[in-house]
From TrEMBL:
This is Histidine kinase. It comes from the Bacteria. Keywords: Kinase, Membrane, Transferase, Transmembrane, Transmembrane helix. GO terms for molecular function: phosphorelay sensor kinase activity. It comes from Hymenobacter fodinae.
Amino acid sequence: MKPKLLPLTGCFLLFYFLTHTVWALNGHADLGSWTGFGQHVGRVLGQPSAWTFLVTCWGVYLLFYTCYPTRGIALTLLLYLLLALPAAIAFRYGLEEVVLYRLTGRHQYGEAMLAPRPYFLDNLYFAFYYSAVGVVFFFVQHALFAQQRQQQLQGQLQQAELAFLKSQVNPHFLFNSLNNIYALVYQESANALPAISQLSELLRYLLYEKSATVPLQQEVAYLQNFIDLQLLRYDYIPALRVHLPLPTRTHPQILPLTLIPLVENAFKHGSLKDPQRPLTIELHTAERHLTFCVRNATRPQHKDAAGGIGLTNLRQRLALVYPGTHRLQLEEVDGLFTATLTLPLHA
């Protein structure tokens, strides 16, 4: 937080002017014409006390700016009451009743008010009254700075948590894919080498994509590569229906690695042997939102529970990036598991 004396000066002069305008109106001053109002402005801002109290306001503001963050409120208030206010009174006396008196031959106060006790009490009120502008200005600035800092820290924490969650996607995906390729190699399948090549392309996307969001087209291309890699491990023709159309007029962005966990879950736990109940992967995009639906028949020995690393990780990342604007619905009815994800789309 940096000191802001220029905005403080503007606030003080406005406060000082409004205060003296109210006093003038209560004294039945004629401010109804531009001439009268202009003379009033000149009188108010031409008073030596205006600039004396401005310096007081600066000093108190700098006192709180310097002491409050490191010394706390108790010591700062003590210094304000025992040091700043008496110093402000002494400064005004020295400037107006000593320096200006020698220059103009005129006191700002009457002789009776120049006695120490009445002068101190009268100026204690004014010093407190006008220095309050500096105190209030400081705490408003400090509150805004603290709020901004908190938002920055929350943003940094969110980015760190998101990066951690994304780092978990890589080993989780790699672990499952290597198991699939191991099975192909063990079976001496001709699909083993294409699978390794396909995996290298996917890992390139996983490891080198550092953007917070990616084009939907890029995410869908990655998803298609993943589907092709999964299909290599089957020794029969899987029952599969894929519909992944892309918008042609817009280029929306999406959180990377958002679609794959639902598809990965379906390949891992679903049955692809029934042509009447194929694994269905559908993408629908409207002007401002995306709907991604994955539907698969379940196997008796496996459950498409909403737990596991992949889906749990996905839920956490969605909550961070799309708080309150996404919907992930998982349901199983009559041996058919359906996962539906709805997200807002941004250009």
